[in-house]
């Protein structure tokens, strides 16, 4: 959906001053250790995660620290962020993973299939960036509700499951009028609340089916319950919210669902404006990158500057690094294997740094020539800040 | 070293009967659940591993079950096999990872570098198959000492670290006469034993340096102590033994080390013959594949047959699957992203199976046209069985 991208590009602050960038960068660099110190004990349902690598905003929202994640392309499951709209279902749903059922509708031969049956239809593996719509919210200056994510509500993951297009083919193909692929989560809904106000149900354009998989595996392990096991809808290139967990229904529908999470939630809109179905939905991700090293003061001499870059729903083609807050740029190189257009790529620039103050940031370009902007204009919910100004880090070299 | 490959090819049993193949396959398929039942409590140093996915041969040798590992290309750290020649060093060596020292010798400016310093020289990420020389030993019919590995002393891993060639360049380049790259492990040696009889020190041809890295990261996580952290030599395409753990010295030497593990150990030799330096060393791996699903009886109808395939030190180009013990073959397709020439690739063949007995096996071909053989002639130590006959699984479809 180009509308979302154009909409956001229109929001750019063209006049962000370097001073502003430095100040914002200072917040990132300096507040980082403070955030780390606040780490609390992990809740039971994610007790297997690596607490040292995470920042816990709430019981349902955990972010990977900016310096975690390494340079190995994939993000270990223990470090992948958590953002659950509803509490995780009971562990009993992963006791017999193959028995989990998903109803497939809007096809010529609608059926309920078990995971065991899905495993017999086909297998595909795809690496994708999983990124929360609100990743970077903490960089906006306007007041926003929700977790103040910095860079860590994102990871790069290898998923394995059945291609949705193969399931559709198996069930006689799409019925007429299937404009959207609508996935429903299997969370237990609290009582006394209108279902459509609370249910996790998301629609994406039906063509997203071409790359989507119903996944039971995450980085080679059974899909953890906390990440949507036994079965999760993976829509490569789309924001995390569209990757519905514990998916119990996939329907090809004429209209988008009227669930609140779709109708008014996850809409890009000016500050102060209510959410509505005619606003761009948080579907395809946009080009983005950030530095993950160094984040702190450094000794002079040679410094390895690295981070991650991705194109959203397109391959990332180029990354540049600036040491002076965007005054000048140098081409970085990519590290390691290319896991495909939906994955991120670690990048590297080796620099010789004299003593002094640096504002280090990165700027990615996707294969269509879209360049990561200097700044991102405020939107009401503080979605996906991708401006290279505030993603910068301030480093003093001594 | 072509010698090793030619040597082993010369060992092929050309006359292995199909009946023999079926019998051997039966051992694999049927004994699998029995092995699984024998799983014991994991030793402390690998207590973080996934016991359900492992077979424990001894405290120092743990194998991944054939059905574990999934289809996501990489093997999760929790499932990667363990084969330690000596007990793991004390955990104190990973308390300050950046302080670990490695001495670099046989360069023009020899020096001892810390991991912290290495991290400033360069960064590269490479996916490799890590495979024990003895993987498949259990398929040989002759008596062999050592763990009776089946398929699971192997995994595919993303490593991140500094390219050895950059370290060499940093230290003024190779000194004259550096024919071999000799790496020494930092294990504490038991007292009262001749050092060269016990030390883990391995030489590989110096040109292996071109792809080698000194790695501090394994699948995005800090290198676990049990896998060689803080620092491990990774020699892509070479058997596990050459990927020296807790590496404390890398020397470019004129001769191979005279340590027993090199001079007489890990040599390919006829049964009953003593190990000697003129025999082929377990260096580059050979083309290999095996099916990981199905391993058990199956219902009739469509069955997804999958497994893993690799070319050793060359890319794998093709995999064929046979349902009749090698009488006929069908081309399989690869699943997911290609992580490079040293990685394995999951493969898939979808088959419609009528009720009956099947002997399912796979046969890989590397980019040089080397084809995985029908059988592997016995060698004294039972190294790397790669014959598609005994790697087969017997499946009854009802």
Automatic annotation (TrEMBL), chains A, B:
Protein name: Sulfite oxidase
InterPro entries for the chain: Ig_E-set, MoCF_OxRdtse_dimer, Mopterin_OxRdtase_euk, OxRdtase_Mopterin-bd_dom, OxRdtase_Mopterin-bd_sf, TAT_signal
Domain of life: Bacteria
Domain Oxidoreductase molybdopterin-binding as annotated: residue spans: 95-259
Cofactor: Mo-molybdopterin
Biased composition (Polar residues): 364-376
Signal peptide: 1-36
Keyword Oxidoreductase among record annotations: yes
The entry's keywords: Metal-binding, Molybdenum, Oxidoreductase, Signal
Pfam families attached to this UniProt entry: Mo-co_dimer (PF03404), Oxidored_molyb (PF00174)
Region (Disordered): 364-383
Every Moybdenum cofactor oxidoreductase dimerisation domain range: 281-395
């Amino acid at each position: 959906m180009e509308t979302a991208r154009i909409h956001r590009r229109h929001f750019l602050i063209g006049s962000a001053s370097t001073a502003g960038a430095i100040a914002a960068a200072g917040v990132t660099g300096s507040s980082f250790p403070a955030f780390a110190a606040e780490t609390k004990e992990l809740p039971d349902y994610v007790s297997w995660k690596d607490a040292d690598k995470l920042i816990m905003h709430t019981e349902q929202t955990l972010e990977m620290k900016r310096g975690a994640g390494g340079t190995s392309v994939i993000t270990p499951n223990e470090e992948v962020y958590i953002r659950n709209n509803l509490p995780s279902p009971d562990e009993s749903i992963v006791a017999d993973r193959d028995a989990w059922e998903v109803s497939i509708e809007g096809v010529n031969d609608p059926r309920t299939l078990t995971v065991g049956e899905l495993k017999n239809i086909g297998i595909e593996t795809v690496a994708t960036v999983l990124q929360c719509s609100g990743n970077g919210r903490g960089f906006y200056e306007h007041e926003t509700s929700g977790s103040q994510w910095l860079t860590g509500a994102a990871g790069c993951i290898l998923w394995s499951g059945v291609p949705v297009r193969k399931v559709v083919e198996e069930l006689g193909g799409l019925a007429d009028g299937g404009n959207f692929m609508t996935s429903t989560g299997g969370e237990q809904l609290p009582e006394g609340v209108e279902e459509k106000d609370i249910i996790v149900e998301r629609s994406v354009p039906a063509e997203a089916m071409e790359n989507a998989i119903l996944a039971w595996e995450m980085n080679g392990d059974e899909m953890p319950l906390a990440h949507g096991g036994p079965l999760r809808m993976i829509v490569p290139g789309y924001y995390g919210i569209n990757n519905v967990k514990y998916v119990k229904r996939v329907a090809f529908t004429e209209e988008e669902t009227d669930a609140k999470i779709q109708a008014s939630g996850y809409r890009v809109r000016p500050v102060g404006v209510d959410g509505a179905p005619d606003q761009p939905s948080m579907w395809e991700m946009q080009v983005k990158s950030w530095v993950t090293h160094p984040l702190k003061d450094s000794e002079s001499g040679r410094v390895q500057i690295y981070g991650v870059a991705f194109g959203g729903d397109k391959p990332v083609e180029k990354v540049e690094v600036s040491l002076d807050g965007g005054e000048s740029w140098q081409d970085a190189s990519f590290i390691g294997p290319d896991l495909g257009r939906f994955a991120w790529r670690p990048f590297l620039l080796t620099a010789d740094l004299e003593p002094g103050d640096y504002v280090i940031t990165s700027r990615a370009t996707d294969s269509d020539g879209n360049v990561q902007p200097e700044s991102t204009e405020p939107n009401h919910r503080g979605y996906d800040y991708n401006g290279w100004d505030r993603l910068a880090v301030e480093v003093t070299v001594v």
